[in-house]
From TrEMBL, chains A, B:
Its EC number is 2.4.2.22. Converts the preformed base xanthine, a product of nucleic acid breakdown, to xanthosine 5'-monophosphate (XMP), so it can be reused for RNA or DNA synthesis. GO terms for molecular function: xanthine phosphoribosyltransferase activity. Xanthine binds at L20, N27, K156. Pfam families: Pribosyltran (PF00156). Its main location: cytoplasm. It is found in: Cytoplasm. InterPro entries: PRTase-like (IPR029057), PRTase_dom (IPR000836), Pur/Pyrimidine_PRTase (IPR050118), Xanthine_PRibTrfase (IPR010079). 5-phospho-alpha-D-ribose 1-diphosphate binds at A128, N129, G130, C131, A132. This is Xanthine phosphoribosyltransferase. Residues 42-157 form the Phosphoribosyltransferase domain.
């Protein structure tokens, strides 16, 4: 097990309906030393890529992206989930359909902050069905920029998002892939990942 | 002028209706090196305080809080603005009225992550009328925790929030206080702050 899998085993909670709760260290209370380890690991996995910008989505992706950005020494842009009155000028807008919630959401980035010169690392905390991620990829493409890679903290391997994104040819690195979890015993099965 | 005031003069844009836009470095695209300077300055200003937790509010406060937290070596908790289905258990809820937008919002933090043992630094990117901040203070008080201080990146000195919070006796440190700005000339008047 790597440092993140160990932390999930220690502090992750499986609740009714196979929901994984990691709100004590990842997406409500945030362990910044862990974020720094996550950032260093993303840097190691995308060492070869000419990344000049990190793109994430509000809200819980922002903290991880900002701490990771210190390892890449690049700025972060975060996509907003609804039209905000404080955004001016032209926007890239991706409409994404949530299969789970049966609703449509807009993912929005100002055109000022993404251009065809950008080589983008997309970072988010969770990958399940991949809706938000598909919206972010769509936005990078609208800008004519390049998706150099995608860094995810926890992927739910038993949902479709990861396969879809890998099938599209992207370098998707998930630091922990949960292939199964058992609510009754509180145990996890992580996908084995080759050490690179 | 300090480093932040210089950056506001360089990259801040004053738009119609006296709106200050700093989305190229603070709250849409985020300059992580600047955030690190901001974090170091908060650490200097709250050096004497026994801070063990940073509290912020989604979305744009999260990045600053996380980078600042590295200087304090403490975890960050971010308050959510609406009830989220992924939060379980008991919540601290503050209802805050937005004077400007004439609507009510809920600010929510799980009770698991704030207790009477906590000494909290509240961090946010902007202070104008202070609604969000009042909600965060209310939540810290509900938990029986102590507000050790409040760190703000940009305060709009021509709006009431700053005076209200200082009148209540809190140590409020705003790294730049904009007392006036002129849309036509694009110029700013910053409040003079004593070097501590």
């Amino acid at each position: 097990m790597n440092f993140l899998e160990e932390r999930i085993v220690k502090d992750g909670i499986i609740t009714e309906g196979n929901v994984l709760k990691v709100d004590s260290f990842l997406n409500h209370q945030m362990d910044i030393q862990l974020f720094d380890q996550i950032g260093a690991e993303f840097k190691r996995r995308f060492e070869e890529k000419p990344i000049n910008k990190i793109l994430t989505i509000e809200a819980s992706g922002i903290g991880i992206a900002c701490v990771a950005a210190q390892h890449f020494k690049v700025p972060v842009v975060f996509a907003k989930k609804t039209q905000s009155i404080n955004l001016e000028g032209e926007m890239y807008v991706a409409e994404v359909e949530s299969f789970t919630h049966r609703c449509k959401n807009q993912v929005i980035v100002s055109q000022k902050f993404l251009s065809e010169d950008d080589h983008v690392l997309i970072i988010d905390d969770f990958l399940a069905n991949g809706c938000a991620l598909q919206g972010l990829i769509q936005i990078v493409q609208s800008a004519g920029a390049t998706v150099e890679g995608i860094g995810i903290v926890i992927e739910k391997g038993f949902q479709a998002g990861g396969s879809i994104i890998r099938n599209l040819g992207y370098q998707l690195e998930s630091l922990a892939i949960v292939d199964a979890m058992d609510e009754k015993t509180g145990t996890f099965v992580f996908r084995e990942q080759k050490e690179k």
